[in-house]
Amino acid sequence: MKINFYLNGKETSIDTDPMRRLLDVLREDYKLTSVKESCGEGECGACTVLLNDIPVTSCLINIIQVDGGSVITAEGISETPLGKLIADCYQETNAVQCGFCFPGFLVTSYHYLANNPDLDEDKIKWALSGNICRCTGYRKIIDAVQLVCRKLADQELNHESI
Amino acid sequence: MKVYKPENLSEVLNLLSELPDKKLLLAGGSDLNILIKLGKISDEAIIFINHLPELHGVDMCSTKLIIGATTTISEISSSAIIKEYCPYLSDSLIDFASPPIANFATLAGNIANSSPTADTVPLLLVLEAKLVLKSITTTRTVPLSEFYTGYKKTVLRDDELIIAIEIPLNFACKYQPQYIKIGSRTALTIAKVALAFVKYEDNFKIAAGSLNEYPRRLYNVEEYITLHSQDLNDTDLMNALKKDVTPISDFRSDKEYRLQVCFNYLQKFIESANTD
Amino acid sequence: MKSKPRKDGLAKIIGKCRFLDDYSLEDMLHGYLLYATIDKGKIKNISYPQDYDLKEFTIVQASDIPGENIVPEPVSDQPFMTKGEVLHYGQVIMGIAHPELKTLMSFISAIKIEYEEEMAITDVDTCLDDKAFQFGECMHISHKDGAKVDPEHLKHIEEVFYTQHQEQAYLEPQGMLAEYDQKNSKIKITGTMQCPFFVEEAVKVIMGNAVEKVIVETSEGIGGAFGGKEDFPNLLAGITALLAYKAHKPVKIKLERADDLLITTKRHPSRVAIVSYTDVQTGKIKAVNINYRLDAGAYQTLSPVVLHRGILHAGGGYNLPRCEISGFLQQSNTPPNGAFRGFGAPQAIFAIESHLDNIARAIGKSPLEMREINLLRKNDKMPSGQVVKEDHLHECMQRILEISDYANKHRQFEQYNKDHKDKKGIGLVMALHGGGYTGNGEKDLQSKVKMRLDKNANVQIFVANVEMGQGAHTTLAQMVNEEFNIPLEKVNVQIPNTGKTPNSGPTVASRTIYIVGSLLQKLAAKIKYELKCDDLAGYIQDHQELFPKDYELSFKPDPNDDFDDKTNQGTAYHDFSWAACVVEIDYDPLQYKAKVTKCWNVLDIGRVINHDIALGQVYGGVTQALGWALTENIYKKGYPRTRGFTDYTLPTTEDMPEMIVEFIHTDSAVAKGLGEIPMDYPAPAVRNALIQAAGVIINDLPLTPERIYQEINRSSL
Description:
By secondary structure, chain B is α+β, with helices and mostly antiparallel strands.
């Protein structure tokens, strides 16, 4: 089946088995290896991407869902002004450890921070509750997201989505 | 797996009526893809429906709220209509799986998947929800309380699909249910016990999940509480509960625990309802 | 104190860092393991499915092994692949490879194996409770520092503590990539691992004389390990190498999460029986007898080393003038257990810390008093006879009492619980963790490090220690640069490659900063001294002809350190890290659920190199320990092991307590180990807090709501 969609802002088309997982199509056909497979059952968030601008676990999304839509991965997000700010803040808090879960966190936190983010810790925790990290205990991840909130408020940065 | 992408609801109904053997409907895919991963699906026909606007969205009329089959959990939770007229439904969906999964899982899918632990069903049961089932020849409305007939068994015919979930306004609006989902952790958890409870006038509607082959109303408990509102005692309440639930032990939990926790929350909800 | 940013940070954040499964080579085959699905017995017959062309597959079995079919371990008793005998579910039978992953996996699932099954021991309690299942060597410590005790006037308490398996749950599953270069008779391994030289040895063993050279390099990124990638990679790499050798093509094996959960190494379940004699008046523990047992699984492999550390930590942070500590390995028909952060110490400390609170209650003293009276002080002797050279454990305790307001809170919570339906509890524990390999281990390892200075004054650090998230490559660079004082961007640890680096030992045992980092610092200081310069860059500029130049240094143990492996007497660990922890919990009696709201941590890890990274280790280690304490278990009696994260429930963002962390003695000359100690103390702290909150005394883990309910129900009968 022919699937047409926007991938990280660019129009693309692929002819493939419509039931293939979005995770596999992104990694194998498009070489977007930021999208990681860790559990294969939607329980860890390491495969999170934006589908039509909302975070989903790509290991449970069949490529047919994507037809006519848009997909954004950590590769795309890291090119945006907001994405760069988020990455800088994660770096500033020294939040990352092994890094395997981080592209997933980048996607989820980008979505949170791009949509009227609240500094409230409980809201941030809920938004990230589908992303598992085994290394960090999450503290510095939350700190980084709060840091972005404060910077956004300070700068009134006009972030652009793709 | 042969995959069909019908252009509209009519085509879906045609396919359902014409295709022989087992057919599966693909909405969000959060349950279907787990089944594929476990090797439980290999050559069934798959009918994709998530793209059809007719099946999507939250609407209302004077008597009810209407939730389209492919509306996602997140969409329902954040819908202005649901927040206004059924805010406890909106709240209860916050703990559904995790935010990324709620973003593509559908309410109809959760109901149709027929897991005994289906998060959404107990509350919908006490809200007197109904399912609109459509085939090429018929459209019928079935109360959710009559939808399940056994473990993973429903009244859904081979040529039917759920097109909408309806929640009557006269009930949903007026009475405020209490709801609890007990999992092994707060987020990303399957329910070990779920309980929904509403007191209306001097009557009660109570439903439990993860305690039977399918989520159901606790009719014996309802009757007992209604008849003995002045002289409730723990022993009789527990006996009534035992008539309504058959909890099991599994990897996740123990039957003694499930029964006791259900009982504890039942007591709590009764107490809260009486003090209001 | 602003910390230096992690060198690997940005690439990891934006997803550019490559992990094993991101590597792909032309002509590469996908490989996988075929393993036994019974617990014990013999393989009678294997039949391949008819509708596949066998010629497309590369298959390796025990009979294909050119070298030896034994995985090198401290006790080498595990075959790479079985010839027919099955001692545990998950015992590897074959390695199979195919160009298409999907075809490979459906082929494997269609293979039919006939077994002759035998009676198996798979239940943990059955294994641990019965002396009949003991195997391997037992270990013993006999410490007689005080006068012989007359038990008649002492409070005598006997109890048994149990802890469960734990899965490391690194987010990146296990995997290996092998390339065979026939022309040069060389095999190259790339993969996710903690110990490149262990893997190199394993591949050399399995390949024997069939290849002349083996090189092992880690992937650019290693997605978590926590001990789980200490020895399983040996087996995985060996089989992947053999497949590549037979196929004459590169082979990559990446485990599915279900198989990783089912067949790889886990934390050892433990049974620790403690008999103690305590003076009721003074609260002083006079004598202790500890019987410490671990369920090793089907083979010993590295369990003796875990056992060794376990018994040497069994006394915890307490002065036990007379104690007898015995350690035993028990055999079960389950996959061999292995390393996991703490390595026997969490099990030991859970038991002694829980026991202390039980003694307190039995003799009418408070948990705090028991610790004040019995804590290890400077000049006290540990069960190994080692003299404690610093009073830092006591300082940790003083400090934590201060910042957590433990004593007041304990009283307040008592009152709160009288007045409220929901409850609160507070628990206090002390911990210690010896840095580096036990006893003579570091001496035997003879770690060696290398540095290369190039013409542009770049410093390349060559060590075998991997960056697996713990920040090793950033902190080691910082430690070296404390000597050189050049821009930190110019100082970099190279990706460990056994062809390029000397063997500085495995990335285990909280030794990376403590042993390897300090060795690197000595080397850096030595270089500066030899070059007689303070301005390294300037010197190199003026002496271009001398560079690039390599420098090496080997570890030299302290000559005063002496350890007898038979009697376990002597310097068990040259330095200990110390810690104190207070945990506050909320308890919901309707669902019998404990939730940790606050966790206070005071640690002495000596000099802190990078404060952010150190904090990250405490946050992460404590979170893992809380998972072990409350929600994680792969096994329930009567059920098969869990196969996914759906039921192996790890802590999420919603499970975070408020964490308060302080380090003391951060200006010390010595940078001590940190990786493991945060795993050692939280579980007993939660268990002790639960006594106040729920009124239950539970001597086992995990403290699930079901377990708590079971105990409440039992005690009310």
